[in-house]
Amino acid sequence: MFVDYVEITVQAGNGGDGIISFHTEKYVPKGGPDGGDGGKGGNIIFVVDENLSTLRDYKYKRLFRAENGKRGASSLKTGRGGRDLLIPVPIGTIIRDVSSGEVIADLTESGQKVVIAKGGRGGKGNYRFKSSTNRAPRIFTEGEPGELKQIALELKLLADVGLVGLPNAGKSTLLSRLSSAKPKIADYPFTTLSPVLGIVKYGRYRNFVMADIPGLIEGASRGKGLGIDFLKHIERTKILVYIIDISEKRIKSTFNQLRNELDSFNPKLLEKPSIVALNKIDTRIDDKEGMEYLISQGVRVLRISAVTGEGLRELIEVLGKKVEASRSSE
Ligand SMILES: Nc1nc2c(ncn2[C@@H]2O[C@H](COP(=O)(O)OP(=O)(O)OP(=O)(O)O)[C@@H](O)[C@H]2O)c(=O)[nH]1
Ligand SMILES: [Mg+2]
After folding, report:
1. pLDDT for 199-234, tens place per residue?
2. Atom of ligand 1 nearest to the CA of 214
3. CB 3.0 to 4.6 Å from 144: which of 107, 120, 153, 233, for a disulfide?
4. Residue nearest to atom 7 of ligand 1 (CA)
5. Are 180 and 134 part of one and the same domain?
6. In this structure, are 117 and 165 located in the same domain?
7. Do residues 171 and 304 share a domain?
8. DSSP strands (E only) in the chain
9. CB of 307 closer than 6 A to ligand 1?
C-alpha cells in the first residue's frame, strides 16, 4: 500500500519536576537544601530514512510520545532526561501544522533530522532558591509541558525524471530496464497504481532517480481513470519524459492530450524541461506525420524500445546531461 498523506499527533516529553529535599547526614543535623532539578522532556525528532518509500507506518498509529523527564532527587541530583523519539520518514516528506497549514519542515536530504516538538524544561529543585535570607527554601518548580502538535505528513516523491504517458505505453517496462526497480508490467491499462522509483546508473559513479507513475488518460483531470492526484509526485521532478507508444500511430493527439492533462493539474509542469521517447519501435510501425509534428514543436524526440533495449543508451545519456544541467542550476 502506498500512503502519501497522514495526520498524526506528536507529544514531546514533559520536563520532570524539581524537588524539595534537605541534606541529611550523621553528625550534620541541619544540612542545606539539596533538591535536584527535574530532567528535560524528550524531543520529537523526524529523521529521513532512505529505506522508506511510503508513510504507511503512520496510517494506523496516530499518537507519538517522547519520554517525560524524571523528577530531581536529593543530593542535588538532576532527574534523567526523557529519551527523544525518532520518527523515520521517507525522503520527500513535508511536515505541516494542521491548524495553520504552515510548512514546518521539508525533508529533502538523506539523514536529515528536525526537531518538530520540543521537550519541556525540567523544574528547579529547592537548592536553587537558597539565598542569604532563605537558607531552607521550601520551594520548587514543576517541569514545563512538552510541545503538543497536530501535524500532517505529506510525501512528495523526489525524482529527477518523471515518466508520463498513457496506460500501456511502456513506462514501467522502461523503468525496469533502466534500474533495478521491479514495477508490475502487464498488457492491460492501469497496471501501475502508485508511483515507483528507480535509480538509473550511468557513467561510472553517477545516477539519477526516475519515477514511474500511473498512466494518464483523457479526462483524468475530471477524475477519469485513476484521476490525476498522483501528478503531485512529478511536481518536484526536474525533467519529464513523455512516453508515447509509436505503434498506436497517434503521436500528435497523444502528446497534446498528455500536455492538456498536465496543464489542468498544474500549468507549471509544462515549463519543465522535457523530451519525448517514442516507444515500441521494435514493432516496426512508424508514424512519420506524428514525428514531424513533434519536431515542428521544437521537442527533442528519441526512438526507443523498452523491450529490446534499442535507443536506451542514448536516452540515458540525454537524461543524464539534462539532470546534471538542472542540478548545477539549483
Ligand atoms: N513491443 C513492445 N512492447 C512493449 C514495449 N514496452 C512495453 N511493451 C509492452 O507494453 C505493455 C504495457 O507495458 P507497461 O510497462 O506495463 O506499460 P505502462 O505504461 O507502465 O502501463 P500502466 O502502468 O498501465 O500505465 C506490456 O505488455 C509490455 O510488455 C516495447 O518497447 N515494445
Ligand atoms: Mg505501469
Report:
1. 888 877 788 889 988 888 877 777 777 777 778 878
2. 25
3. 120
4. 170
5. no
6. no
7. yes
8. 5-11, 44-48, 63-65, 85-89, 93-97, 103-107, 113-117, 148-155, 161-165, 196-202, 206-212, 239-245, 274-279, 300-303
9. yes
Number of domains in the chain: 2
pLDDT at 134: 92
Instruction: Give the nearest ligand 1 atom to 308 CA.
Output: 31
Note the pLDDT tens digit of each residue in 122-134.
999 999 999 999 9
Q: Which amino acid is at 163?
A: L
Sheet holding 85-89, edge to edge: 85-89, 44-48, 113-117
Name the residue of 172, 173, 213, 307 to mutate for ligand 1: max ligand atoms within 8 A of Cβ: 173
33 beta partners: 22
pLDDT of 258 over the 80 cut: yes
Cα 217–Cα 219–Cα 224 angle in degrees, nearest 5: 80
Same domain for 148 and 169, yes or no, is no
Give the mean pLDDT of 54-76. 93
> Of all protein residues, whose CA lies closest to atom 8 belonging to ligand 1?
170
pTM: 0.69
**Enclosing domain of residue 283:** 161-328
Cβ of residue 305 lying under 6 Å from some atom of ligand 1: yes
Express each pLDDT in 271-285 by its tens digit: 999 999 999 999 999
**CB of 219 closer than 6 angstroms to any ligand 1 atom:** no
Same domain assignment for residues 191 and 144: no
Ligand nearest the Cα of residue 278 is: 1
Find out whether the beta carbon of 171 lies less than 6 Å from any atom of ligand 1. yes
Joined grid coordinates for residue 153: 505528513
How many Å lie between the centroid of ligand 2 and the Cα of residue 319?
20
Distance, CA of 55 to CA of 150 (rounded, Å): 16
CA of 313 to the centre of ligand 1 (A): 19
- My answer on whether 318 and 236 are in the same domain is yes
Is any atom of ligand 1 closer than 6 Å to the C-beta of 309?
A: no
Residue 40 and residue 75 in one domain: yes
- Look up the CATH number of the domain holding residue 65: 2.70.210.12
230/166 same-domain check: yes
